[in-house]
Amino acid sequence: MDTGEDELYDADSGNESSAEDEDEDELSISLEPESSSREKLETEEFHYEVLSTEQIVQHMVDCIREVNTVVQIPPTITRILLNHFKWDKEKLYERYYDGDQDALFKEAHIVNPYKAPSTSSKDSRFGPRTEECEICLMTIPKNMMTGIACGHRFCTECWKEYLTSKIMDQGMCQIIACAAHGCDILVDDQTVMSLITDPKVKLKYQHLITNSFVECNRLLRWCPQPECNYVIAVQYVDAQPVTCRCRHTFCFACGENWHDPVKCNLLRKWQKKCDDDSETSNWIAANTKECPKCNATIEKDGGCNHMVCKNQNCKSDFCWVCLGPWEPHGSSWYNCNRYDEREAKSARDAQEKSRAALQRYLFYCNRYLNHMQSLKFEHKLYASVKDKMEEMQQQNMSWIEVQFLKIAVDILCQCRQTLMYTYVFAYYLKRNNQSAIFEHNQRDLESATETLSEYLERDITQENLLDIKQKVQDKYRYCESRCKALLEHVHEGYEKDWWEYID
Questions:
Q1: Which one is predicted more confidently, 23 or 260?
Q2: Is residue 49 within 8 Å of residue 232, measured between CB atoms?
Q3: Does domain 130-208 have CATH number 3.60.110.10?
Q4: Contact (CB, 8 A) for 480 and 416
Q5: Cα separations in angstroms, 220 against 6, 82, 212, 217, 424
Q6: Which residues of the chain form CATH 3.30.40.10?
Q7: Residue 278 vs residues 74, 372, 503: alpha-carbon distances, Å
Q8: Mapping DSSP to helix (H, G, I), strand (E, B) and coil, where does residue 29 land?
């Protein structure tokens, strides 16, 4: 059976970063020369591939063709079914052969291809030669009318406008339903591509199909780096580092920058905590109190403990220290004598607890942000290191001999990134004997990293060249070993359930 899927999903498909407003003769996607062949990579035993846009499309076509040889239905219907099951072939096979195919096609909004209604009567040469389009209400020759498997037929122009609007205005591709009111049967790709004549709309549709294929497939993930059109393909989903051809390394499971030693769920929790206004609430709780009568929030702006609520409907007098009524305090303006009362103690304890929680968060957050900022500065070191390397080569050192500087910056950035995420891990970690070992490793790595950063920022002269080189080499080797020891300890803790977390 000639499916024609290679024409339907051609190599123009890809991430939508390519310009859609270019001229027709510029619609093809340009790629780097090395993207013509698959790049197989691995991190220890985690195998993955970096795919170009053409390879993504070919991967989709191969999946469709493989399933099509088993289920023996048109490829465009096969694609809709695969998309319905998030491109999980095993789930599709299981449902397809469970005996209830009618329910399967109904769920996927497809007319059962084995029971598709016959259109021979409408196409008979003995019947009327014209039809009325139910959208524009014009009487149109039959050869200018088009329908899909559900039997609804409209004029070609109305189909074209309808599909163009869905694709260009609404960004739809997988769930474009029939133009008939109340009909949920999906329009197949072959019909879309045959009706659309504008190359820009066709390209947009191919972009959307390809994007949807990647987004729905759990074994594929776009590189999150802006303007990058490559996809990482894996054999199974795991929180492992993958490196794209653009040299960006990220976690395949969550798509964030590689964040060892913290796990994806704790990182998401930390990011949410940093992004929302929970810490604003903590500050309010730590630095303000509520009026004991009307619960209005009050910030103390003077030394006197005699507080008068400024709420016009309240105006109660109370003590800032114990939150009790002011009247029993007599003349003790600055010396509250009710510290031991249960109610006052409870109020003070609640505020102290909130203040302690805020201080703890700020402690870890400041160090996390400090390493993040330092990491940005360390990346700028590459430019200055390049100049130093060129200068050293002019002092009769070979290209190989000066590579120690680039290696040092690479290790420095790796250590900075690891340290940044150790503070996220530490924030949620309950204290025990193993956490004390972790903090010792963290402190040791942090101290060595700071020393290495200091060495790399020094000016290199003919007199101190050999001394600086030896110090840099010794220190980056030590940093590398300490970073490895820290991560190995954390991973061992994951395997042996050493770590307990604070809610």
A1: 260
A2: yes
A3: no
A4: no
A5: 21, 15, 11, 6, 27
A6: 130-208
A7: 53, 21, 15
A8: coil
pLDDT at 170 over 80: yes
Sign of the dihedral through C-alpha 152, 157, 161, 166: positive
DSSP character string of 258-304: P-TTS-HHHHHHHHHHHHSSHHHHHHHHHH-EE-TTT--EE---SS-
Given its phi and psi angles, is residue 44 left (phi above 0), alpha (psi -120 to 50 degrees) or beta? left
| Cα–Cα distance list, 149 to 115, 119, 155, 183 (Å) | 10, 9, 15, 11
Q: What is the pLDDT of residues 29-66, one digit of tens each?
A: 222 333 334 444 444 578 999 999 889 989 899 999 99
Q: Start-end ranges of CATH 1.20.120.1750 in the chain?
A: 266-496
What pLDDT does 2 receive?
Answer: 43
Q: What pLDDT score does 280 carry?
A: 66
**Topology of the domain covering 266-496:** Four Helix Bundle (Hemerythrin (Met), subunit A) (1.20.120)
pTM for the structure as a whole: 0.71
Q: Convert the pLDDT of each residue in 320-336 to its tens digit.
A: 777 777 776 655 454 45
Rounded to whole angstroms, the Cα distance separating 258 from 240 reads 8
Adjacent-strand bridge partners of 42: 47
**Residue 13: is its pLDDT beyond 50?**
no
Catalytic residue list = 304
Q: Are 333 and 325 in contact (CB under 8 A)?
A: no
State the DSSP H helix or E strand holding residue 479, giving kind and residue range, or none if neither. helix 465-496
CB 358: neighbour CB atoms within 10 A? 18
